[in-house]
Each structure stands twice: as C-alpha cells, then as structure tokens.
Amino acid sequence: MKVALFVPCYVDQLHPQVAHATVRVLERLGVEVVFPEEQTCCGQPMANAGFAADAAPLARHFLEVFGGFDHVVAPSGSCVSMVRNHYGAFLSGAPGFDRLRRGTWELCEFLTDVLKVGELPGRYPHKVGLHQSCHGLRELGLGSPSERMEPRFSKVGLLLSRLQGIELVSLSRPDECCGFGGTFAVAEEAVSCLMGRDRLADHLAAGAEEVTGTDVSCLMHLDGLARRTRLPLRFRHVAEILAEATA
Amino acid sequence: MTGHAERAARFAADEPRAHWHDQALWFVRLKRDRMAAAVPEWEALRERAAAVKAHARARLADYLEQFEREATRRGLRVHWARDADEHNAIVHRILSERGVTRVVKSKSMLTEECHLNPYLAARGIEVVDTDLGERIVQLAGEPPSHIVLPAIHKKKEEIGELFHRTLGTAAGASDPTYLTQAARAHLREKFLAAQAGLTGVNFAIAETGGIVVCTNEGNADMGTHLPPLHVACMGVEKIVPRLADLSVFLRLLARSATGQPVTTYTTHFHAPRPGGELHVVIVDNGRSRLLAEEGFRGALACIRCGACMNTCPVFRRSGGYSYAWTIPGPIGSVLAPGRDPVAHGSLPFASSLCGSCDAVCPVKIPLHDQLLARRREVVRAGGQPLAKRLAMRVGGWVLRHRALYEVAGRLARLALRRLPRALLYGRWNAWGRQRELPAAPAESFRDAWRRTRGDGRG
Ligand code: SF4
C-alpha cells in the first residue's frame, strides 16, 4: 500500500523527528511512503481564526497536492480534521474532494482502521500520560469523549496500551483541553496557560513521566509551560513512542 | 476596546481563585456525568430533544398561535412583546394597573436580558429575586455570573460578609446552613408581603396552553401561591408542541444543569388560581432574527441548562463576567454577536474550539461549529485588528507558495536558534510570557527527506 505523507507545517519546521518517526512506523508495517514536496500547510491557522478568504487558497493547494492519492496520512488529528470536517466550506463540489476527504487519516486511526493492526509488537517501559487532543477526540472520533454516554474506547490508548511495559496513567480529567487552540494560545494567553498548567498538574499527579498525544501543537504548548517551570515531564508524539517501541 | 481576553486575564490573574471557580464548576460537570450515565438512552434522548426543537422551530408561528388559543381558553391572558422595551412596558402596565408595588420574582434569564428589575425599580416597584443565588447577586448589586448558578463566583465567606451588611447576620459567619436560614427568613417576609409573583417559563405547551416552571427551591411556587397575580415571561422559543414532549426535556434539563435526576419542583400552570390572574408575556427580542439565520437558528433550541458553561474550560477559568453579556459561556458567545457582531466580536474567540460544549449540550446545538462560523462573521464585518488581518493575509500568502514557505521556515528556525533570549522573549511575544519557545532543529523534515531520499518526484 502506498500513502502520501502530510507533514503539518510546524511539524516540518520545528519537530521533524515526529515526521521521521511516522515514516518509520509506516514503513515498518510495509507501507510505501511518499512525501509530495509541494505541500505546505492545511490552512487551519487562518480558518480557525475566522479568515476564510485566506484559508481557501491553501485548501485548494492541498487538494492539488494530495488529490491524486488513495491515502493521505498525517501525524496530527487537528490538521486531518481540518481536511475532513472543515474543507467542505472551501472545496465542496470540487473534483476529487470527496475522495481526498475520505482518504485522509490521522496516523493512529490509519493504523487501526485501515491497516487494522490489532497490536504493534513493541516495548516501552515508561509511565505515560495520554493527552487526548480535542479535534482528534471530538471531531475525528479517535476515542469516546467523556461527555458522551457511549461505550468507552480510545484508538490511541489501545495501540499504546498493548506495548510491553508501558503504564498509561489515569487522569482525573481524561480529556480536558490543554488550552492550545491555535491563535487562542496567543490571543487568550492568560486562560490558555492556566489551562495548560492544570493539564500538567493532572499528569504529574497521576505519576506520568512522559506525556504523549496525536498533536504536536498541544504538546508544544504543554512542553513550553513545563520547561519554563522545570517540571519533570517529557513530551513525545505518539509516533515517536511507536517508532521507538517497535525498533 | 476591551474584549474577553482582557477581562479573562483579570479574572485569571488571581490564580487560586480561578482554580477554585474551575473546581466548583467541574464538580457540577462530574455530577452531570454521573446522572447522564445512569440513563441508558441518554444519547437517544438528546437526539429526540433536538428533533422536537427543530420541528417546533420550523412551525413556530403555528405553535405559538395554538398556544395562545389554548391558553386563552383556559383563562390565561397572553401578551406579545416585540422587544425588551415592550416587554418591560407590558409587565409594568399589568402591575401598575393593579396598584402593585411589591413583587417577588423567581429566576428568569429573559427578564435579565430585558433589564426588567431596574426598569420596574425606576417606576417605584420593588422586585425581590427569590432564588437564593439570584438574591445574593441582587443584594450585591451585580448581574448573575452564570445562568443556573448565578452566584457561583462568590465564596461563602463573601456571602457571609454581604449578608452581614444587608441582612444583619452575625459578623464573620460563613456557615452555609446558617446563611441559608437567614436568607429564607428574610425572603419569607418578602413572599408574605408580595402583591404579585413574576416567573420565567421553562416550557410552554402548545397543545394544552399551559406553562411549566422548574426550580430547585420552590420559590416560584411560593411566589405565585399567595398573591392573586402571576406574570410569566417567556421567549418565543420556549414552545414545545405536545405535553408528551415534556418528559424528554425534563429528564435532560436537571441532569444537565445540576446533576439532579429532576428539578425539585416542576410546576404546571394550566389556569389562573381561583379569583386570581395569570398573564403570559411572549417576547421576541431578536429571536425571529436568529430564526432567520440559517447557520445559527439551531441555537434557539437552548433550554438554558448551563451545561456548556460548566464544561467549558475557558468559562471555568475566566468567569461569567468576562463575557459581558446576560448569557455567558459558549451559548452566549454564539448568541451575543448575533445582536451586535462588533460589540461582542471578541466572544467567539473566547474558545479553544475543544468541542466539549457540543458533546455536553442536551439539545445537541453544534456550539463550537457555530463559534467558528461567528468568527468568520466577525472577520467579515472587519471586527479584527489590522495587525491580525495583515498577519493572516501575509501568512496565507507565504504558506501558499512552497519556496516562500521554505525560506520563511529557515529564517524562523535560524532566529529561534541564534537570537539572544532578550530579543526572542520581548514584549511582543505573547507565547513566551509564560512558555518556552520550541527548540528549533537545524534541518526541517523536508530538507532531510530531500537529502536522503530526494528523487525529484515530489
Ligand atoms: S446551549 Fe445547550 S448546554 Fe448550553 S445552556 Fe443551552 S441547552 Fe444547555
């Protein structure tokens, strides 16, 4: 199987190790990975700030770059949700858009839903807190949000929990927002940071050594807060954990 | 102009207090979770409630007329008000024609929205709020900070101090039971002396022409049982078609609002009391405009349970007053800009778009999508600062062109790696006030890919 790798702009520039790890995980599972070099950004920063006119050309660009592939995989729930749930405003009716929308996957859901890997043989002897990023959780349905009364599941949690030696800690608020929220992190800096510190306190109280998640943006915000006050927490994208555990 | 961010920053600056506020509301959210989980058909109930509301909305005029017919037949008197002024004038006329100067009122967000209390006070009518939380904020001269828990921002010590000043309770007393008793005794006098009772309406039933009022303190009943005059004020959206629809909403309302299986008192008013009068004032005040807005009319389904406020991580840490609007929180941030997109332009941005509000809302209003849609409106109306508009324009342009994007990325990484800390963390950097910037790598992913795997294919 061949997939086109979508690397969100800030991952490409600031956290390339996450994209490298994504490639390693996919290739280890026998997937052929291509990286269309014309890709840039899905347009989420503009779209979420309400600047639809500035986001629309990026959506069209994304369709041009990725429209030819059966599967597009990205290590980011929120960028994938942008394509799946919010591109309709810009691309509805455009040739190839439906296929693009149906074929764009967040890494973990690609592993569980498309490749149907039940478990990844691997070992990761650490205490890990899972940060369930909101867009992945509530917009993509990577897990059951705590507000909804439905059977509990977590695609990411399941993949991780089957690694040998890993201990997923239990949080008192399993899926509260970390406060990143794109431009919210800057425009509402006070509340954003308060939210982030509360998430960190929850992870620390639960005994986490590491915090992981599907979105580098949330981890970047939490990591920034933790480093400022020197909290003993490491931050790793779930792709990094899977890559290292299965090495 | 100050917006939500500045007001929120003021609230959050007192971090222990913000945490206390957050914990208090989270406690209610957890109670709600437990109660909702005990109903196996919870999600189906939400579906049903949303469907009933959508149906009622689509035929709103018919159901309102049916309600008026049935209510009139039962001896209720129905009044129509286009806006807040008309509403206030009608209520005032009903009261003054009967020589009423002392009124007890149970909770009604509609009368808050219309600023009824000051209107009547200015005309020599004393209005006493009888919901305990409402009474607390009324004594403090403040508006409610939450639609279900109006005084949630006040600590019991502060209430003790307030009661000491206004009701003469013992100095320094903060025991909730003692304070509640004192408030009860004080309110009892007001109930006994009242010449009229004002209430809101939780549900108006088109089929029967009756209205339903839910309270936890029984104060709506106390306020309407003694005086001969009862005036009930409702927004046009309170209509449900049939009596049978009520069960759906009553099961959802209290569980979502406070985590109780049902409100302590659910009172049906289907006729005036013998010898008394029951007036219903039906108010539009912007609701038909909302009904005409395709992307937002779903917000009319709101049953004012407050669950979206309790679950909202921003509301919990910024307080109800940071919204500067009668209905705060996610639903308020959707409703307020519908009235005035410029004055309330900051509210749709008071959200991380986490979507918790949608998932908790008992009538399934897609709140975070509506917040996003409101953002687009605010931007279109020019309600965002020039600097942000420019940044978005330039950012979008750079990101559209791969070569420019690469150059910008390289420069940004270089700056992050080389610039002295004092420059990087200057006043302009809102990210860096409380957070470290990421440590930039020397090589982007695409550079590495090109170096190791590049085949020019792209
Ligand atoms: S929007 Fe939904 S959750 Fe919020 S107050 Fe209204 S009914 Fe309750």
From TrEMBL, chain B:
Keyword Iron: yes
UniProt keyword terms in alphabetical order: 4Fe-4S, Electron transport, Iron, Iron-sulfur, Metal-binding, Repeat, Transport
Organism expressing this protein natively: Anaeromyxobacter dehalogenans (strain 2CP-C)
Top-level taxon in the UniProt lineage: Bacteria
Domain Lactate utilization protein B C-terminal: 383-451
Protein name: 4Fe-4S ferredoxin, iron-sulfur binding protein
GO annotation terms (biological process): lactate metabolic process
Residues covered by the 4Fe-4S ferredoxin-type domain: 299-365
Domain LUD residues, every copy: 64-282
A GO term, aspect molecular function: metal ion binding
